[in-house]
Structure formats: C-alpha cells, structure tokens
Amino acid sequence: MANPENKFADNVAGPFYVDDSCIACGICETEAPENFKLSDDGDHAFVYKQPDNDEEREASIAAMESCPVDAIGDDGE
Ligand code: SF4
Fold this sequence. Notes:
- The protein is of the alpha+beta class.
- It has one domain (4-74): Alpha-Beta Plaits, CATH 3.30.70.
- The chain contains two helices and four strands, in the order βαββαβ.
- The two termini are 18 Å apart.
- The structure holds iron/sulfur cluster (SF4).
- Iron/sulfur cluster binds at residues 18, 22-28, 45, 67-69, 71-72.
C-alpha cells in the first residue's frame, strides 16, 4: 500500500502519486503514459500530470493495479 507521507517530491499535486517503494520498472509509464513517467535519472517514476479525463483516470488506475510493489497511491479527490 502506497504511503502519501513517502511520496516523491516531483509528483504533481493531486490524488495520484508514487511513493519511495518504487523500483522503476516502468510499467506505470506504459499503462498511463499521459500521467506517469520515469525520472530523468531513471531512479523512480512519478506523476507528472494528474488524469483529467475518464480515459486517463482508467489508465492511471490500471497503472496503480499493475504496480508490482504497490508504490502508486490514489488519495481520491
Ligand atoms: S509500476 Fe510501480 S514500481 Fe514500476 S515504475 Fe511505476 S510506480 Fe515504480
């Protein structure tokens, strides 16, 4: 379960976030490329844009459910 207290500082503000348990596997970027990406140094993924339509929301939820270490959280709105 992702912990909002441990989220990376580069997540944009909003419900979805990546916390420091991320292992940079890249699955979330594949599932929701409009919302998640890996940091330039490849250390971790982060939310660079919160989903703003149903398609992106569904993709972000799929990313969250696909994350092998449960590093993605959704605080709701
Ligand atoms: S799917 Fe999870 S572990 Fe993989 S890069 Fe995304 S947040 Fe990190």
